[in-house]
Amino acid sequence: MRILITNDDGARADGIKLLEEIALSLTDDVWIVAPETDQSGVSHAISLHEPLRVHQAGEKRFFVKGTPADCVVLGVEHLLDGKPDLVLSGVNRGGNMADSIAYSGTVGAAMTALAVGVPAIALSQMFQGVDIHWETARTYAKPLIERLLAVPWPRPVAPNINFPACAPGEVTGVSICRPGHGLIEGVNVTERVDVRGGSYFWLQFRRAKNLVEDKECDYAQLLDNKITITPLRPDRHAEGDWDNYRAEFGDTLAVAPLPNLG
Prior knowledge:
Helix content is about 25%, strand content about 25%. The protein has about 260 residues and is of the alpha/beta class. It has a single domain, classed as Survival protein SurE-like phosphatase/nucleotidase (Stationary-phase Survival Protein Sure Homolog, Chain: A). Helix 1 (about 15-25) links the parallel strand 1 (about 1-5) and strand 2. Helix 1 (about 15-25) crosses helix 4 (about 135-150). The longest helix is centred in the middle third of the chain and has 17 residues, at about 135-150. The termini are far apart.
């Protein structure tokens, strides 16, 4: 099996070093194509309007001045000498759950892999305070990946795995669940002034953990020390919602033919 690994925390992050260790426990054919610098929050973005610079840092190891999605596209379509069988993205420093999934470069890399025809799994290690239990991801990632690869996946989906903020022995189980809603309340904008008198801005998510009311969602399950797996689809299709919208708004949204504006 050939595995391509990437992340959004950057090519030198602790999480991708751990992911390389995990991948090498599954196969000896592991390729690393990762962002040169931290690309957290870039989601699925690819660089269409600027060139990409690639530095080969070793055998089967490439650092890209670009996004996680750029890394996947470059790896699958150009840098590897054959298409990978699997893309692993992470292990992210911090959870990628609830509303934050939409912004995650870790998840964006996995979604991009699906778009170019390669199965993918995103992995993140939640933490609280200053301590991060990398050993939890180290303990459980390999057996979970092996089990996921052993069964057929329904439709093109990317399993999004989050490990809870606890030691391995405190994990209470595995929950296959849906993403929550309400974790991101808004975005703080901080204005500062540079040495030439020009304004610049820092953006920071404003969290509202108390607004997550769904006890069965990924965030709530992680707080119960469960490993969560949320199957994600690139087409954003929410099954059941279309029928409900059609029943509720079908007549209201019906419009007459447009008048002849000529």
